[in-house]
Write a structure and sequence with these properties.
Blueprint lengths: L1 H25 L2 H36 L8 H33 L4 H14 L1 H19 L8 E6 L2 E10 L3 E5 L5 E5 L5 E4 L5
Antiparallel strand pairs: 1-2, 1-5, 2-3, 3-4
Helix pairs in contact: 2-3
Length: about 200
């Protein structure tokens, strides 16, 4: 019985080695290396182009938002607010396209992944509602000019209040710097009352 077991293991090992050897012989190592190098070079070029494009977009936004000498303090704050918002939109969009291009270069089925993301999106719809609420409320805050970068404000949501100077207004959150130098990130959907002490109009 023991002898049969030894023979069985030897035969199994023999055929396994034959299988591995046959598999390796079928592989075209040159083609594999060429494909890997092509993808690596494509990814490097993509990252370089992405970095340059991001820098150019940042410079364009800064030039558009560059305050003139004729602007009042309130107008300067308004322009800073819009520039921060534009940068946020550009960042979200550019990173989405970067991820899409990386998946395409790696040969992954992007269409299938997007379809799967759509199904997953339905499953996490409740979480997406919060994101949409942030974006919509942030839009109305900007459209109605409730606050701008540099304004001293108090944000209220029921019994909760947060006060400080507005540092940034994004599509999801508004950032305040308190007197204690703490940086508060307030989701836009949680802002129900804005008390602006920098507005005189």
């Amino acid at each position: 019985m023991r002898l049969m077991k030894i023979w069985y293991n030897e035969i199994k090992e023999f055929y396994m080695q034959k299988f591995i050897q046959a598999y390796i012989e079928k592989l075209d190592v040159t083609t594999i290396i060429e494909n890997i190098l092509t993808k690596v070079i494509s990814l490097l070029l993509l990252l370089i182009v992405f970095y340059i494009a991001k820098k150019m977009l940042h410079t364009m936004v800064q030039r558009i938002a560059k305050p003139s000498l004729k602007m009042s303090h309130h107008d300067v704050g308004r322009q800073k607010t819009i520039s921060r918002l534009l940068e946020n939109v550009f960042n979200y969009t550019s990173y989405f396209f970067l991820l899409y291009c990386i998946l395409s270069i790696l040969g992954l089925p992007v269409s299938s992944l997007l379809a799967g993301a759509g199904i997953a999106g339905v499953a996490i719809g409740m979480g997406a509602q919060g994101f949409l609420s942030d974006v919509i409320n942030g839009f109305f805050i900007l459209f109605e000019r409730q606050l701008d970068v540099g304004d001293e404000v108090v944000l209220t949501n029921g019994p909760i209040t947060v006060s400080g100077k507005v540092v940034s207004v994004g599509i999801r959150t508004t950032q305040l710097r308190s007197e204690e130098q703490a940086l508060h990130f307030v989701p836009n959907r949680n802002i129900t009352v804005v008390s602006n002490f920098s507005r005189t109009d």
